[in-house]
Structures are given as structure tokens and as C-alpha cells.
Amino acid sequence: GQHKIKFIPEMVGPILEMTLIPETELRKATIPIFFDMMQCEFHFTRSFQMFENEIITKLDHEVEGGRGDEQYKVLFDKILLEHCRKHKYLAKSGETFVKLVVRLMERLLDYRTIMHDENKENRMSCTVNVL
């Protein structure tokens, strides 16, 4: 109800951790919570910047810590885009946000993979991409 806004941004991290558990059905059931958070913040502030900043910060930390995978990236993209495209006011800004996060995830997953590469040039290139 009207108190949902009080949980943003504090609950973004814990919910992100839950969505990153490598269980497809759990992911499908919990990723839509992010859209609810976006919609809730947008309702009160006409933006979802607190949510956006928090999810990007937490995602960086979680992927660096070894969580997240290609399947998560695909589900995140598919599920959130479906929800955003159906919403009158969040269609454009929501799609832009989802694409930004998906690109960030791609780079973070690449970075995590390449960190164990012996080739310093590959690691540097990947680091530049993340930045």
C-alpha cells in the first residue's frame, strides 16, 4: 500500500540477493518485485532514481562477489522489459533503465571471468569496458 515507498532503497539489496539465487522459478517470481519498486517510486517522485542507483550499486557488488550469471541477465531483461512496456509512463524510461543494467551485467560478468586471465591487456580492456 502507501507504505511501500519506505522500503526503497533499503530492500533493493536483499531482494537482489534473492533474485540472484540460481533457481529459475524463484527468479521468475521475484524479479517482478523490481518493477513494483520502480512503479512505486515513480508514483511518489515521478522518477525511480533511488531504486536505479541502489540496484546498480548492489549489482556491482554482488556480481563481483561471484553471484549472477548469463541466465539471470536474460531473465532480468525479459521480465522487466515486459512489465515496463505495458506501463503507460514507465515504458520509455523503464526500457532505457533495463538496457543500461543489462549492459552493465554483461560487462561485470566479462570482467569477473577475465580477472583470472593471465593476459594483462585483456584484463585492462575489460576494466575499461566496465568503467
From TrEMBL:
* Domain named Dedicator of cytokinesis TPR repeats region: residues: 1-79
Q: Which GO terms describe its cellular component?
A: cytoplasm; plasma membrane
InterPro entries attached to this UniProt entry: DOCK (IPR026791), TPR_DOCK (IPR056372)
Q: Which GO terms describe its biological process?
A: cell migration; myoblast fusion; small GTPase-mediated signal transduction
Write one Gene Ontology MF term. small GTPase binding
Q: Which Pfam families match?
A: TPR_DOCK
Q: What is this protein called?
A: Dedicator of cytokinesis protein 1
Q: Which organism is it from?
A: Gavia stellata (Red-throated diver)
